[in-house]
Amino acid sequence: MSSAAVVPEHPWLLPGTLTRPTTTVRRTPRDWFVDGLCFLLALGWAVLAFHDSVGPEPEFAVNVGPSWLNEIDLVLGVSVSAALWLRRRWPVALAVASLPLALFSVNAGVALLILLFTVLVHRPLPIGAALVGVHLLTTPIYTMIRPDPVLPFWATMAWTLLFIGAVVAWALFVRARRQLVWSLRERADRAEAEQQLRVAQARQLERTRIAREMHDVLAHRISLLSLHAGALEFRPDAPAEEVAKAAGVIRASAHAALQDLREVIGVLRAEPGGAETATPERPQPTLGDVPALVAESRAAGVRVGVVDAVADAAAVPPAVGRSVYRIVQEGLTNARKHAPGALVSIQLAGRPGDGLAVEIRNPWPVGEPAAPVIPGTGTGLVGVAERVSLAGGRLEHGRDATGDFRLAAWLPWPAS
């Protein structure tokens, strides 16, 4: 399966290529104006030069020579002027085909300069330089065939070289300006694309962050759900009040878990949109929500002891308080999963400038658990470690010297 070569829209941006666009680009109103102006200038010069050659004072004419040559020169000049309408498509071909006229034609002089200008602007520099060199070589021959009636040979040569040099300088200026404009436009397009990429990456990171938050919440709620369901399974003869209470907790936990799951799926499926279409994010937990979290676990039958030695809980930064909440939540979830029935102790301590320390400890389980183990993804502690690391803190977890499982973290709390 063959594929067509990609041709740049502006080949003059690539000095080493001779490839031209294979598709015809429609002229803009500005192009029509410029092409019409070039045609009128070239045609006007051809008519003016022929008129001077047959005027009452031919000794002052710029078109000196036999009458038959002047008539042929007029036809050639008008023909090359008309061919300027094709210069955008075949500039090099027209410039090469009209090169012989540079030896003797006065009427085609302006048209030849316009073709030379077009090649220098729109085609690779080596081609333009070659055409300029050929024009310079034809200058002495032209001056001998068409001598000026007033100026000497070297003066005529100097004026001709001056005109060619002015056209070359103007063409190089236009070329450099177009390259600069195209480079700035390409840089702006690249910057816009990079900005869109950064926005997309930031949106994806935000979705990932929210998904991790929801993972912590879901793991906590589902562990509570499993704990109550396990109690009902192993105590079918429990009093009706306890069964109703446990069923109510199961229903509430299932409803909350379903709501959290719906939110995380909505976040992951949401398409990029404006701020007016985005749903507001629910308030994030802080250090003040830890007692409610502990009360929820106690209601599920978990024995939890809390020692709160935080100097000024209201002054804890929201980001630090949210991290402490997630650490306590993960510690309680792990205790319910791996050490059901064990006493969980939580210690909070800290002050501004010293940082905030949190420690969750529970006895290491002995033997196999009687109830089925609550399944988990095994990434909870990994997420907590990443959270603490991003906050600039430290995290330790594992079995300590006393045989208990210990989850401890320290988070920076700058002094106000």
Structure report:
- There is one protein chain.
- It is rod-shaped, with a radius of gyration of 43 Å.
- 57% of the residues lie in helices and 9% in strands.
- By secondary structure, it is of the alpha+beta class.
- The longest helix is centred in the middle third of the chain and has 82 residues, at 153-234.
- Helix 9 (318-338) packs antiparallel against helix 10 (380-390).
- Among the domains are: 29-194, no CATH class; 287-364 and 375-416, 2-Layer Sandwich (Heat Shock Protein 90), CATH 3.30.565.10.
- A 5-stranded mixed β-sheet has the order 1-2-3-5-4, with helices on one face.
- Keywords: ATP-binding, Kinase, Membrane, Nucleotide-binding, Phosphoprotein, Transferase, Transmembrane, Transmembrane helix, Two-component regulatory system.
Q: What's the gist of this structure?
A:
Among the domains are: 166 residues, no CATH class; 120 residues, 2-Layer Sandwich (Heat Shock Protein 90), CATH 3.30.565.
Residue fraction in strands = 5-15%
The poorly predicted ranges are 1-23, 272-280
Structural class: alpha+beta
> From N to C, what is the helix and strand string?
HHHHHHHHEHEEHEE
Roughly how many Å apart are the termini? 68 Å
Tell me the major beta sheet: 5 strands, mixed
Q: Going across the major beta sheet, what is the strand order?
A: 1-2-3-5-4
Query: Radius of gyration, Cα only, in angstroms?
Result: 43 Å
What average pLDDT do the residues reach?
77
Helix segment tally = 10
Shape: rod-shaped
Helix content: 55-70%
* Secondary structure tally: strands: 5
Enzyme class: transferase
InterPro entries: HATPase_C_sf, Sensor_HK_TwoCompSys, Sig_transdc_His_kin_sub3_dim/P
Transmembrane segments: 32-50, 92-120, 151-173
Pfam family, one: HisKA_3
